[in-house]
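Format notes (please read before filing issues)

Several people have asked whether sequences and structure tokens are stored in separate files. They are not. Every record keeps both together, in the order shown below: the sequence lines, then the token lines. Line labels are part of the format and must not be stripped during preprocessing.
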Amino acid sequence: MTVHANLAASICRLLVVLFFGSVQPSTAADSVAEKPAMKPYVETLSGVDVSFDMVPIPGGEFMLGSPSTEANRKDDEGPQVKVKIEPFWMGKYEVTWDEYDIWSFRLDIQRRNIAGAEPTKLDAVADAVTRPTPPYTDMTFGMGHDGYPAICMTQHAAKMYCRWLSEKTGHFYRLPTEAEWEYACRAGKTTAYSFGDSPDDLGDFGWYYDNSDEQYHKTGLKKPNPWGLYDMHGNVSEWVLDRYDPEWYSDIASRGAAKSPLNVPTDMYPRIVRGGSWDDDADGLRSASRYASDPEWKFQDPQIPKSIWYHTDALHVGFRIVRPLKPPTPEERVKLKLDPEQEIAKQGRAG
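Then the structure lines:
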């Protein structure tokens, strides 16, 4: 019996390798056959004293966009359309410099070298992931580092960080889709904000123009939304995977209810950031509010061509990560352009 069980397990592992590929340990580790329980967890990065919290987001249906009666609503927030979302985990906080710098400045490799430590199998694969060129200036712009959200990265850089993080941890991480982001922000609510329709209480939940003192703040200082996510309203706007199209909701609605929609990018601009920031008025922090990326976010970049890694004028832009309960297949990763390497040939102009 034991021999048969061991043989079956070996065959299963072989099938996983054949299907997912040995170069994608994150996908194999998150295989459907080993679907993890939906509980909060803390992910600790090997070789460095840095960890981050992930919050389970239950699957369900909701109305994407805002109703025509919502105050300060913009045309690109409608028409509302019913969307079905699969379960996933989302970062409890926005990705901080403490996490981001490990990848961008190769701090994990440097610390291993100093300690004379050998890389783990996951480390070895993660080390091969492309990392940014050095920034031409301090990308915090004097607003704070430890515990503050990382900012000024392109969407390409945020996606590459997720690729590195996936290899580093063995779990598949990516940016959220626009629909996933709004679903998580609303946390089951249909009001303009996750706490109600009136912005009167916004200062309890987010940093925005009226209370930010014109800069970002450490993550997690305000109240969380009902699902335990901090800074979904304000602090920094957050990259999602989608291409910006003001007619996208109409396109979805014309096909009826949608399951986990993603407007796959075809060009570097415009792409979407969500949630509003420390530099936005209250209406820009509504759950349905959408912003499009702009080449002007690189206006001060002195490089020719402009960097694929930095948005030197996007001090209001950061990101948070998600981990789907059901990771994508290699075919889905290609079709949905989830891996940033697929865009490198087009770049020099990454959005």
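For reference, the curators noted about this record: The first strand starts at residue 41 and ends at 44. Residues 59 and 87 are 4 Å apart (CA to CA).
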